[in-house]
Design goal:
about 325 residues; alpha+beta; 60s Ribosomal Protein L30, Chain: A
């Protein structure tokens, strides 16, 4: 069966006129999400997590980031990334850094790099691959992972030229969504267990944190009851709670704040729902993984959140 083709205009930094690079994705595209900024910037990872951060090179220009869900059940992450790497190399780019999950730094690498939020881009913390490449002032990175039923690819490109004004050709037609990204409705608590089973993660959208505060506002929080129910139904399962903040303040302060938020949620699970503390881990990544703009109060409120990630089921 023919593979899906995605026309992704990478403008090579050459003395001659720029040409477009056609990237052929290794499987049929089921869904696609995009993010663009002009001008924009991107921290291009250049090495694995070093215990404190992910070394990166700041690149600026026209930012185009795309996440794809592929009909790739049974395909390995190597099978997903290898043909894309070959095409990037054939276009004259040089690989800056390449790694798989363990060599990248696992959890810490994932949450110290820019990744589009679930469910647009799913990352299995034990099974993903990454590469970054550069040609002159232009840069591209590719992140791939998979779930039981699909493959996931995120491609981030920064060029020194404006984005094309014509639509990008895609192999699928998606229904129009009138709801702006970053202001969608909270995920129903009843969907959280299903999301943990299907993709291994979910955003706890009903949690409320004030700016700069680590404690939860008063509330029943059905999402936490759903997480506790999932843990009860999966007695061998363990989870990580990952805290996020808006961009108000320094990275160091926000990283510490986000971890305290995750710890506050863990305390509620342990104290109110009698969850075994050994099955819950709390981490914080500050403002490094926004899912909405930090330029509005509505966006900042959405960025102040905690996500739950399945770390083991046995």
């Amino acid at each position: 069966m023919p593979k899906a083709i995605f026309l992704f205009p990478l403008l090579a930094a050459l003395a001659q006129p720029a040409v477009a690079l056609t990237l052929e994705l290794p499987a049929k595209v089921l869904a696609e999400e995009t993010r663009s900024e002009l001008p924009g910037s991107y921290a291009l990872p250049t090495a694995a997590f070093d215990g404190t951060s992910v070394p990166a090179r700041q690149v600026e220009g026209s930012l185009d980031q795309r996440a794809f869900r592929l009909d790739a059940a049974g395909m390995t992450t190597l099978a997903l990334i290898a043909p894309l790497r070959d095409q990037v190399l054939a276009a004259g780019y040089e690989v800056v850094f390449e790694c798989d999950a363990r060599a990248c730094g696992g959890f810490d690498f994932r949450f110290h790099t820019e990744v589009m939020p679930e469910p647009d881009m799913h990352v299995d913390l034990g099974d993903f691959r990454f590469l970054s490449a550069q040609s002159g002032d232009e840069a591209v990175s590719i992140l791939v992972s998979r779930s039981a039923g699909a493959g996931y690819v995120q491609i981030t490109r920064v060029s020194d030229a404006p984005e094309p004004v014509t639509p990008v050709e895609t192999p699928v037609t998606l229904e129009d969504d009138a709801t702006p990204r970053g202001v969608e409705a909270a995920q129903p608590a009843s969907d959280i267990a299903a999301a943990l089973d299907a993709v291994g993660s979910a955003v706890l959208d009903d949690l409320v944190f004030a700016s700069g505060a680590a404690s939860l506002a008063d509330g029943d929080y059905p999402s936490l009851a759903a997480v506790a129910g999932w843990l009860q139904a999966n007695p061998d399962g363990t989870i990580a709670l990952v805290g996020h903040t808006d961009a108000s303040g320094s990275l160091a302060a926000n990283t510490a704040l986000s971890e305290r938020r995750a710890e506050a949620v863990a305390e509620v699970l342990i104290n109110r729902f009698a969850v075994d503390p050994a099955r819950v881990e709390a981490k914080g990544v500050g403002f490094l993984a926004p899912r909405a703009t930090n330029q509005t109060e509505e966006g900042r409120q959405k960025n102040r959140r905690v996500e739950v990630i399945v770390t083991s089921t046995r």
